[in-house]
Specification:
CATH superfamily: P-loop containing nucleotide triphosphate hydrolases
Order of helices and strands: EHEHHHEHEHHEH
Structural class: alpha/beta
Radius of gyration: 17 Å
Number of helices: 8
Oligomer: single chain
Amino acid sequence: MDCNKEGNVTENCVVPERPVSPLVSFMPPLPLVIVGIMGCGKTSIGKRLAKRFDLPFCDSDQEVEEAAGCAIDDVDSCYGEGALASGEYKVISRLLSCGVQVVATGCLSFGFEKTRELIKEKSISIWLRADLPTLLTRVTGRKDRPMLEEGKEEEILQDLVDKYYGIFEEADIKVQTYDEPANITVDRVIIALSNFIKQKYPNYHVLKSV
């Protein structure tokens, strides 16, 4: 199942019929990269997912800011046009060379073609998809969303949805997020990931103790 813009269920969407708490009996064969626009839960879900697998967690935006010495939105103005895209690529390339871990990417990271191809080649990508009302609820009034202008949150988010949701469809795994406890979303991510690994890497779906 899948979900359209209105959140209706179609063929490829992971929708919970009831809360579940799967036991993690496998390890990912590749790094897990979480993609999606602001408010979809990349950091909160990523941290919890990493904890379930006992893996390191990294936020690529923080890594870019540390490398650049400035806020993510100021990278291009400080270093020139294209510096953010280049910096994102370099940082994510480095992270994906450091073994299996969970990486939460920036809002637009998957939108940079070179970075997207790198993620598709070197990792398992997970798109946390949220509808516009859910995103608005999560970001309105937040002071840590520099891309958003107060009073224009809905307009800006709708523009991001229109521009990038088609690109996020290229992710390996798509999980719809709802207004629900984060651990329930993590449960559904693990189920989707398990099913993906069984199909794509059948010989790798092994018990952690093996």
